[in-house]
From TrEMBL:
Gene source species: Pseudalkalibacillus berkeleyi
Source superkingdom: Bacteria
Protein name, as recorded: 4a-hydroxytetrahydrobiopterin dehydratase
Pfam families membership: Pterin_4a
Coiled-coil annotated residue ranges, if any: none
Family statement drawn from the similarity comment of this UniProt entry: Belongs to the pterin-4-alpha-carbinolamine dehydratase family.
Length: 94
């Protein structure tokens, strides 16, 4: 899949809530939860969503705060797939 241009990335970020660009090739979001185990359940859900389309996030869990980072390794940057997953993760958080 082709890497997106800076302009395409900016446009896609405008359509998402809470995601930001990091080091030009990552999009990042922090999700907050009422309980620690709610965050763990969210991580389980996004793990399945990611495995289904074979595109995997970097995840860090800091008690009730889950940080998710997405990038496309082969493309060495951001592709449509990263933004598709970001929207899927947001739906799973709702
Ligand atoms: C062969 C396999 O589908 C690829 O290596 C996948 C696996 N998961 C992946 N996850 C992410 N985040 N980026 C990739 O480029 C990627 N590539």
């Amino acid at each position: 899949m082709d890497r997106l241009s800076d302009c395409e990335i900016t446009k896609r970020l405008e359509n998402l809530q809470g995601w930001s660009l990091q080091d030009e090739k990552w999009i990042v979001k922090k999700y907050r939860f009422k309980e620690y185990l709610d965050g763990i359940e969210f991580v389980r859900n996004i793990a399945h969503i990611s495995e289904d389309i074979q595109h995997h996030p970097m995840i860090s869990i800091d008690y009730k705060l889950v940080t998710v980072k997405l990038s496309s390794w082969q493309a060495k940057g951001l592709t449509e797939l990263d933004f598709k997953l970001a929207a899927d993760y947001d739906r799973s958080y709702e």
